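Structure (tokenized):
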């Protein structure tokens, strides 16, 4: 750690030159700026880790995921999601916080991160922290401040809740290791699908510098698993695994290229999640696409559906798309689209198909496929049984038989089935006006505060009192 601290002249204090140069802002003003700056980072889920409180601190993390509330497009809203700083030495053309933009800049101190996290947690508004950051001075300098905040939370405040932190490319491996011992999940944003796209829109970032900490985290997780097998009380390193984010639509890569990149990341780096973020044009730059129809939200949704098929349904990228057919059908979900292109495999007898084939039937998911396997051990299933088991028969009926019979007299023809599937209204995370990218505020959004698990209904005067208390803390 001494080598890392050498990048700064003295240990951190609130009088550090990096902070005194900026106009003095209250904690609430900083929160408004830095929570808004974090809204485009979607890689913030928290499932996959369990840590029970040991009665010496506050908080706990359960494997079912502490994020009890999600926005309509799947983004988690029960974490305190902020940037440590929106200062940045890089000039990525797609980023609102790029160096050349004239935006209000500010930074938290490690103590302020601790104050906010603990105060929000005590009021049951949040159950964890998602901390990302711009680059202040250099990666090591910024990561050291983040480390100090996490160290205080874990050791001084005894906070045992969920923490997700960004690993900044270019950070000293020793510091990445130290952060991994404090965080539940870490992520390194891939940003753009290909090295060419990165070179075009983020000339200060390089694929090698992004993949290096990603590989270090992967190796650290594998090594830690071996340690835990030998020593039960060994410290845990990134127990919830790592994730990444890919921006969709900023560069001309096809869906096939994006899905192939995601598949390689899952296979070669053991990632837990690849998140897809529809490109939102916040800067005017000739290198950026015009997007006359707005952010490609439906495309983002189709990529998430395909990602689910890769991770849980046994599909491969080459089965879903190809170089000759490089983009998803926006009218149909990827699974229905695949089934329509492989009608020679259907209809499938529901009482005989194996688990993997059941997963490929539209309208049947992982849980319902498991229910079918268990239920048919004791009985021959009928369509009425399938309905009770949760199968979406409006989709599945074109692809299955029960005891040799289809539900209705149905033509096994692509055009016929396609017309009928299109008449079944698909639940999309997009309303008539499109998804808003305004991140919900922890202060002024009464609906959000009331939606948190276990939170009591808040009156306007209670929200105001809480705002005033946060101001006093600052």
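Design, position by position:
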């Amino acid at each position: 750690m001494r080598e890392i601290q050498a990048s700064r002249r003295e240990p951190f204090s609130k009088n550090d030159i990096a902070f005194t140069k900026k106009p003095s802002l209250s904690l609430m003003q900083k929160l408004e700026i830095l929570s808004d700056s974090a809204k485009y980072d979607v890689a913030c889920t928290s499932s996959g880790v369990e840590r029970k409180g040991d009665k010496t601190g506050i908080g706990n993390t359960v494997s079912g995921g502490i994020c009890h509330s999600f926005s309509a497009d799947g983004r988690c809203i029960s974490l305190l999601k902020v940037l440590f700083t929106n200062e940045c030495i890089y000039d990525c053309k797609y980023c609102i916080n790029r160096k050349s933009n004239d935006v209000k800049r500010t930074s938290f101190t490690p103590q302020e991160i601790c104050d906010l996290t603990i105060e929000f947690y005590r009021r049951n508004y949040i159950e964890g922290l998602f901390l990302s950051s711009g680059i202040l001075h250099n990666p090591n300098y910024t990561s050291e401040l983040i480390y100090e905040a996490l160290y205080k939370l874990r050791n001084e405040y005894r906070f045992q809740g969920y923490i997700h932190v960004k690993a900044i490319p270019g950070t000293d491996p020793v510091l990445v290791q130290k952060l991994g011992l404090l965080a539940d999940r870490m992520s390194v944003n891939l940003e753009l699908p290909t090295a060419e796209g990165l070179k075009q829109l983020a000339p200060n970032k390089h694929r090698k510098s992004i993949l290096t900490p990603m590989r270090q985290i992967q190796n650290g997780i594998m090594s830690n698993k071996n340690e835990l097998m030998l020593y039960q009380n060994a410290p845990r390193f990134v127990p919830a695994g790592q994730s990444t984010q890919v921006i969709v639509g900023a560069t001309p890569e096809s869906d096939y290229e994006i899905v192939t990149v995601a598949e390689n990341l899952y296979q070669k780096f053991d990632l837990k999640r690849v998140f897809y973020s529809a490109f939102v044009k916040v800067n005017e730059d000739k290198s950026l696409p015009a997007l006359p129809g707005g952010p490609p939200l439906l495309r983002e949704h189709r990529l998430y559906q395909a990602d689910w098929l890769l991770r849980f349904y046994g599909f491969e990228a080459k089965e879903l798309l190809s170089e000759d057919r490089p983009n998803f059908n926006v009218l149909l979900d990827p699974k229905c689209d695949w089934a329509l292109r492989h009608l020679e495999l259907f209809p499938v007898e529901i009482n005989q198909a194996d688990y993997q084939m059941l997963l490929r039937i539209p309208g049947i998911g992982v849980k319902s496929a498991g229910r079918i396997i268990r239920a048919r051990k004791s009985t021959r299933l009928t369509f009425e049984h399938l309905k009770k088991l949760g199968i979406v028969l409006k989709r599945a009926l074109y692809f299955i038989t029960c005891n040799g019979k289809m539900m209705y007299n149905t033509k096994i023809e692509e055009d016929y089935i396609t017309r009928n599937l299109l008449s079944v209204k698909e639940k999309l995370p997009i309303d008539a006006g499109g998804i808003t990218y305004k991140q919900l505020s922890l202060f002024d959004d009464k609906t959000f505060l009331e939606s948190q698990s276990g939170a009591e209904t808040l009156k306007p005067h209670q929200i105001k009192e809480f705002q005033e208390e946060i101001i006093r803390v600052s």
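Reviewer-requested clarification: The two ends are 29 Å apart (CA to CA). DSSP finds 19 helices and eight strands in the chain.
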